[in-house]
Amino acid sequence: MNKERSLLSLQGMKKILVIEDDELVRDSVSLSLESAGYDVMEAATCQEGLQSDKHVGVAAIISDVVSLENEGGELLRRFCLQSPDIPLITLMGTLSYVDKASAKSQMAMPMSPYLLHKPFTLDELLATVQGALAR
Predict the structure, then answer these.
(1) Which distant-in-sequence residues (6+ apart) come within 8 Å of 38 by Cβ?
(2) How many domains does the chain have?
(3) How far is it, in rounded angstroms, from Cα 112 to Cα 132?
(4) Which of 21, 22, 51, 89 sits at a 20 to 30 Å CA gap from 116?
(5) How far is CA 26 from the centre of its chain?
């Protein structure tokens, strides 16, 4: 078995929960991860992702900042505190420099060193996921 196939085989064992309110972004992220060999579960809200069985057995969670700011965000924060071995990758839309600094300090950084700014490339997404899973 060649290295590429072996890598896909290992990644295929990794389940990732994608929480994103924007259906186009959610679909794009999910398809990109699936094409790289990951098993992907999708949810439009934190509540949907964590109150179903979608989160069971996940290796990582990808969530946009908007989902974290809504009422389900507290549910996800508690989940991450109870499961510190599951990395959270935060997606952030285009904001002004001040808004980015505020959101980063208030939302993402205390819980997650993994932050992707929209728009991001497939390479950036995969590198961030691989880095989070390798830690």
Answers:
(1) 11, 12, 14, 15, 16, 129
(2) 1
(3) 10
(4) 51
(5) 10
